[in-house]
């Protein structure tokens, strides 16, 4: 299991998910999204009362997990039985983590700020965060990009690899299905407050181990980066992580903020509404520039290398046993 996750991480780190392949066949997330949309249309009826819609949301999540996990089990079993099947299995598994695309999108924000100014930076960051870009100054654009990097490193890289290590392709696909469901229907909007309850709560649960592991990886990675502090990262986690609106996102965000000596999170605007939030890395420097995005990317790259090394070590230990 961890061997599959190890090779999937290496493969995705090198080649990513090619654009030409996405244009031809889409991506597992788009296929999962289509299934979620169908379940939403069929089960989430506004004529039903709150408890009925909540119960149907549970049914939808169970159906989604059942279909995707079963499909993952069948694919993995069949591919292990044919010549070159393990290679195909690794290529399929490599579509689940998103190291390369995450780095590309965050790097694009730093590049846009440096060469195109604030308007270009706002446009670039609007592709990876949901807050109102026109209300962001340069420091806020940088904070948004770094926060997205920290949070998505956890749920877009570490979590799918972790569950792949635990449950093989089925574990990785099942995680991706649940995480996609949370992003699509796990919102506190009138339509999804009841129907998306199960998806949101389940996503919180399955992201718990990855968020803690991500924070630990950032702490260790800080020891390999100039002008970064593992000790400050630990102090920021202990002080700030629990104050985040998310039970999981605060861990990697606080770790990154503390490691780099910067302040992340804080108040932000979504859909014209100001959301009050506590700073992660409180007391850290808040006037950020594109150089801080690049420092955060360097920290994330080292953490990613540590993750790959950890999974390789676990695979070797299991192989020896």
Automatic annotation (TrEMBL):
Superkingdom assignment: Bacteria
Any one GO CC term of the record: plasma membrane
Keywords: Cell membrane, Cobalamin biosynthesis, Membrane, Transmembrane, Transmembrane helix
InterPro entries xrefs: Cobalamin_biosynth_CobD/CbiB
Protein's membrane topology: Multi-pass membrane protein
Residue stretches spanning the membrane: 20-37, 58-75, 302-319
Cell compartment(s), UniProt: Cell membrane
GO MF: ABC-type vitamin B12 transporter activity; threonine-phosphate decarboxylase activity
Keyword DNA repair tagged: no
GO biological process, one term: cobalamin biosynthetic process
Pathway where this protein functions: Cofactor biosynthesis; adenosylcobalamin biosynthesis
Pfam families assigned to the protein according to its UniProt record, in alphabetical order: CobD_Cbib
Record NCBIfam families: cobal_cbiB (TIGR00380)
Cited function: Converts cobyric acid to cobinamide by the addition of aminopropanol on the F carboxylic group.
Similarity field: Belongs to the CobD/CbiB family.
The name this protein goes by in its record: Cobalamin biosynthesis protein CobD
Species in which this protein is naturally found: Neorhizobium galegae bv. orientalis str. HAMBI 540
């Amino acid at each position: 299991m961890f061997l599959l996750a190890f090779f999937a991480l290496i493969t995705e780190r090198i080649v990513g998910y090619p654009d030409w392949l996405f244009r031809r066949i889409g991506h597992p997330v788009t296929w999962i999204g289509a299934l979620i949309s169908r379940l939403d249309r069929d089960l989430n009826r506004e004529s039903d009362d709150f408890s009925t819609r909540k119960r149907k949301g549970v049914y939808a999540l169970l159906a989604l997990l059942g279909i995707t996990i079963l499909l993952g089990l069948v694919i993995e079993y069949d591919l292990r039985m044919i010549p070159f099947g393990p290679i195909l299995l690794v290529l399929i598994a490599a579509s689940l983590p998103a190291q390369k695309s995450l780095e590309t999108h965050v790097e694009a924000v730093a590049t846009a700020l440096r060469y195109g100014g604030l308007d270009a930076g706002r446009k670039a960051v609007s592709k990876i965060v949901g807050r109102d870009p026109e209300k962001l100054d340069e420091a806020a654009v940088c904070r948004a990009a770094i926060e997205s990097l920290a949070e998505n490193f956890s749920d877009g890289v570490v979590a799918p690899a972790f569950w792949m290590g635990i449950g093989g392709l089925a574990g990785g696909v099942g995680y991706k299905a649940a995480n996609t469901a949370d992003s699509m229907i796990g919102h506190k909007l009138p339509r999804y407050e009841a129907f998306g309850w199960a998806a949101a709560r389940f996503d919180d649960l399955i992201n718990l181990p990855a968020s803690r592991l991500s924070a630990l990886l950032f702490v260790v990675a800080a020891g390999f980066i100039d002008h970064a502090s593992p000790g400050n990262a630990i102090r920021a986690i202990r002080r700030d992580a629990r104050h985040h609106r998310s039970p999981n996102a605060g861990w990697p965000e606080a770790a990154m903020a503390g490691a780099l000596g910067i302040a992340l999170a804080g108040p932000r605007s979504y859909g014209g509404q100001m959301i009050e939030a506590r700073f992660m890395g409180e007391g850290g420097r808040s006037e950020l520039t594109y150089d801080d995005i690049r420092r955060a990317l360097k920290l994330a790259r080292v953490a990613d290398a540590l993750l790959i090394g950890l999974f390789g070590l676990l695979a070797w230990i299991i192989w020896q046993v």
